[in-house]
Design brief:
Oligomer: homodimer
Structural class of chain A: alpha/beta
Strand order of the largest sheet of chain A: 2-9-8-7-6-3-4-5
Number of strands of chain A: 13
Number of helices of chain A: 14
Largest sheet of chain A: 8 strands, mixed
Chain lengths: ~425, ~425
Amino acid sequence: MNYINATKAEKTALYSELRKQYDALCAEGLSLDLSRGKPSGEQLNLSMPMLDNDCTERYIAQDGFDCRNYGVLQGLPEMRAFFAELTGIPAKNIVVGGNSSLNLMYDTIARAMLYGVAGSPRPWCREEKVKFICLVPGYDRHFAICQSLGIEMINVPLLSDGPDMDQVEALVASDASIKGMWCVPKYSNPTGITYSDESVRRLAQMKTAAPDFRIFWDNAYMVHDVENEGDTLLDLFAEAHAAGNGDRVFFFTSTSKITFPGAGVAMMAMSDANLALTLPVLTVQTIGHDKLNQMRHLAFLPNKDAVARHMKKQAQHLSRRFTIVLDTLKQDLGETGIATWTEPRGGYFVSLDVLPHTAKRVYDLCTAAGVTLTKVGATFPYGVDPEDKNLRLAPSYPSVDDLSQAMRVLTLAVRLAALEALLA
Amino acid sequence: MNYINATKAEKTALYSELRKQYDALCAEGLSLDLSRGKPSGEQLNLSMPMLDNDCTERYIAQDGFDCRNYGVLQGLPEMRAFFAELTGIPAKNIVVGGNSSLNLMYDTIARAMLYGVAGSPRPWCREEKVKFICLVPGYDRHFAICQSLGIEMINVPLLSDGPDMDQVEALVASDASIKGMWCVPKYSNPTGITYSDESVRRLAQMKTAAPDFRIFWDNAYMVHDVENEGDTLLDLFAEAHAAGNGDRVFFFTSTSKITFPGAGVAMMAMSDANLALTLPVLTVQTIGHDKLNQMRHLAFLPNKDAVARHMKKQAQHLSRRFTIVLDTLKQDLGETGIATWTEPRGGYFVSLDVLPHTAKRVYDLCTAAGVTLTKVGATFPYGVDPEDKNLRLAPSYPSVDDLSQAMRVLTLAVRLAALEALLA
């Protein structure tokens, strides 16, 4: 039934029926969680051979360096070569970090605040105002970095093929205080969409009023296809260099969702000019990151093919869960007219838009029934979803049974909240 | 022979004789290095059992947490308990980091610049000037952090029992722009001295003009005795709390020179008020550091006793080398009156003061003979030793034979440079 066109009597009757189902589920005392965008233990087990073959006899790098000792600030040459093969970015432009690409991102913006970047008239902390474009819905941890550092966030819609580029181009061309922009270009968090080639080209080529504008390209889901035929993403690093805007790009990725989220290897990449300003600060900050963990990773995943084979196994796990989410949404909400959702071919999330001004109510109904959702508003700067409609679903962590159960609760809550709003 | 009192003829004859010895050594084409303050491979081998027992079956923390996954920002409870036992600081005040305490130190000052600390009227980057007291000779990487962030450094002598506290007290009481001070309180880099109880108490109790003055207490050599009877250091964290100045202390240490410099575990500790301001920034910067490496460390070194046993083995290795350095200095320079040096009971360095205005010449003579020394001036802010007399000797890394050979070249260079100066 299409709820929007239904009569009041139909809606009232339906509400009462759904409410009974909901109350029954509440009585079951469920405790389920759809909020955790992290791999399950089952997925992590796929990487355990990395620990089996540990570094007891493998601590000397290809160039003879003893990885147990201090040094190698930019990361082992073989680890940089690995990431170069994976990303298409030259190894000389790659810096290997610790276990967290978020840490590299935060530090990169903190450095911009304290020192500026190539082309900055002054450190960003000496600017009267610094603004970032934030694509919405987006990743809460990106927004939290801006908020923590007092960077003003401007919402721009993320469309099904990438950023609303007309808006982005108009904003960056006219406002020199817009210094940056967050992007999760492949299997975006939370909508799961991948930027079209045209979006990437326009980002590479657009004119910016700020001489030191930077795109923070968080390619967290680079190799994280769930469907057999994954999305492809144009190489912004190369496109920006071709357009003469190579300094525009700070690229980030990690093995957090390839091997272990808590003990992976992160990397960033940047142009020669950016690197020339960054390395002198990095060398003051640390003598070098954990190279034994780099060796561990290289022994387990020596190249792109090995990564692809490994990610196929992870995809099997995720694919079952995405199917449950999408099938339930289709079955329960497909004809209601009260919700839309994305159908990603990879990544970790499905984004669900419910009837405007009902997302918080859905959240509360789910909570009351023992199902934890990502906090409403988390996908927007300052935690405020202006339309109160977006919900981020994270299917990777729960068991298949738990996920099915949680999805039943969720779609009931979506329908109840919509009927309440329509009947009000 | 005492060179200072020698006749010109004596000095000329001696110079010519020593020069012959030096030229002969130059002809040998040596390639030796006294500059590297890092453990030798032999020392690192002592920690290899840590990798033998890896995490294949030990990745679940005591509270059931899967250490492979995201989370646990402040570090595993058992790792914090370990550091609490080692340092005497309450576990609740401890934050476990990645592999580098230098990284924790840099980040702590960067945070102070961007956000201020407890009691700051404003972020330090908004102050007209920020100054730090730097004890000299001291650790170049501390000075490099200040220089990188535009913090002005004020030299204060490090005496044989700690900082020149009269100078320190006078400076911090009168100048509110002095916001901090670097200390390596035990087996100081490079002099190897340990602060007296009185020094520590005065640091804990002194009045400061700045409401947000901080002591950066880099206790890198906490358990690094070389002699059987090591130095003892009063607990600044406790003393400062007792004096009502608990917020004054940022404490740092790591296992870098206990297990592996490149893959150890670092920690910092701070008062409740400091922690309350720090954790909200840390949670924006990272989801958590490598907990598998914490588990590895705990399996290998579960407690303070295990650490003490392990460090005894390291001491055997270092003790031989310290003996060579000190015996050679005594033998070759003991009666010359042209040099003084420290005789540390632990740590990684011996500090040698040569005749003023001859250290650079000594460095050059050593370089020409194939012996690399730590750069002259490195032990002072801005790389400038005002008296050009301090040399840092790092005996841990070379083999015993190489070290003996290098020391012979060094003492020859010291004598030649002194005679050149005295004859000029």
